[in-house]
Every structure is written in structure tokens, then in C-alpha cells.
Here is the input.
Amino acid sequence: MNNHLKNLVKSHWEEETCGTRYGAATSRKLWLTEIEKTRYEIEPYVLDFADFKSGQGKKVLEIGVGAGVDFSNWIKCGAIATGVDLTEAAIKLANERVKSTLHPSPFTLLVADAENLPFQDNQFDIVYSWGVLHHTPDTPRAFAQAFRVIKQGGHLKAMVYHVNSWTGFMLWVRYCLLKGKPWRGLKYAIFHHLESPGTKAYTTKEMHEMLAQIGFKNIHLSTKLCAGDLLNIKPSAKYKSGIYKIIWALYPRRLVKLLGDRFGLNLLIRAQKS
Ligand SMILES: C[S@@+](CC[C@H](N)C(=O)[O-])C[C@H]1O[C@@H](n2cnc3c(N)ncnc32)[C@H](O)[C@@H]1O
Here is the structure.
């Protein structure tokens, strides 16, 4: 079952590498730049959270590099960076991005599964993963693998999805309430309708319990409103018809912003192996 689901996840991301929807330029170099520019325009807080400079001279592992924008910033800031992704498409694109700029540090990129990291124990100072570990079928196993490869005293920085969010609520309205099945709940809506099949989302309590059980210490969790909660994203193909254009136009962004980060989709995780 897990293998079947993982194949579906892989196929989904092989088809469209994360973030590439925002590249429209015909020149390849401009296209790569455009993707990076849009990423940090849409999610500027990634820069603060990742704190790429903290990786200088450190061994950093990024799990799920996608288009490689964050990965190339680890390298730019002097990290000894290793990146993995489940898909060939992401690894190819991340390689292209890094090689298209002049980076001083050595780097490694390979296709690998977060649930079976091909590294020895206690290897990395920082393991970083943005928007990835909720997509893999066995998320607790992926977090346990991250823990295994982090050195004693090293840090985990990750973002996974937060269940009680505007995005979760919108998906629930669309795919549960309007279908006359409200009892299915937000987790169901996210599992079946947010990005790749089988996406999970957590409460802060659930995530804290999972991390503590694995052995992480100094766990800090916070939620953050993201571009998806504000519908400040380019809609995927299934949300391009007339009704969605109206929803996108009428969405009460100011109100959602005013209510703050509490119902944000992004659950930011900082934790330590000590
Ligand atoms: C939403 S994208 C995020 C990419 C990138 N971190 C970013 O922020 O743009 C999710 C990525 O996770 C990768 N992924 C999903 N399951 C994975 C797994 N089990 N192991 C490694 N990568 C995985 C996908 O291939 C995809 O590139």
C-alpha cells in the first residue's frame, strides 16, 4: 500500500517540479531566476526560517530539494550541502540551477527516499526540509530518518502542513461540505486534494508528540499563514475554471491576514538532537 502511494507521490512530482509553474520566460537562465524570485516573493519568511547563513561551513542535508532554490542558497552561503529528492526531475533541475551559478562549495545531489536515507548515522549539522515530509506515506519514519542522520547537537528545520488552516478549511468546504459529507473533516480533504495524493497535516500537539517520541529535544513549533491560505498562488489546472476565478477575485485576503498566523497552513519546526 505504502509503495503504491509512494509511486503516486513520485509520479505527481515528476510531472511538475514544485515551483516551476511560476517560470514563464523563454530563456532558460531567466526562467531559473524567475522561479527563485517568485519563491521568495510569495514566501519571504522562508529566508528567515532557513537562515541560510547559519549553514556556513556546516554539513547540511536538504530533504526534498524540488526546483533547488533553497538548496542553491545553502551552497551560496558556504554550506557543505547534500540534497535529495524522490524524483529524477527535481534532482536534474536542482543540478542545473546550482551549475548555472558560480558556487564555491562542493555539493552532492541524489535521488533518494526520505524514508530510507542513504547516509550513515550522525552525519549532518543541519537537516532542512520545506514542504516535503507530509507527502511521503510514512511521515514518522521520515522524521526518524532525519533524526538518525543528524549529529548529536545538530538541528532539524522543517515545514509540514498544519491541519487547522484556511487551506484545510477551503478544501473541506469544497470536497466535503459541498458534497454533503462534512464529517470527513479537514485531514481527509487535505489527504485527497492537496498536491500529491496522501498529503498529511498535523496539529502542533500531534507534531510535538511525534518529534518527542523520536527523541528530538528543544522542540519549537509555530504556525504561519502562507500564500495558499491567502490564495496568492497561481492556481493549478483544476482550479482554473470560471467559478474559481470568482473565488480568487472575491477572497477576503485582508480579513484572513488580520486574523494572523494561527490558522496558517505552514507548521514550522525547529528541533535538536541532543
Ligand atoms: C512541495 S515540493 C517542495 C520542494 C521544495 N522543498 C520547495 O520548497 O520548493 C515536495 C517535494 O518533496 C519531494 N518528496 C516527496 N516525497 C519524498 C520522499 N519520500 N523522499 C524525498 N523527497 C520526497 C517531491 O518529489 C517534491 O520535490
The CA atoms of residues 175 and 181 lie 8 Å apart. Strands lie at 59-63, 80-85, 107-111, 124-130, 150-161, 217-224, 266-272.
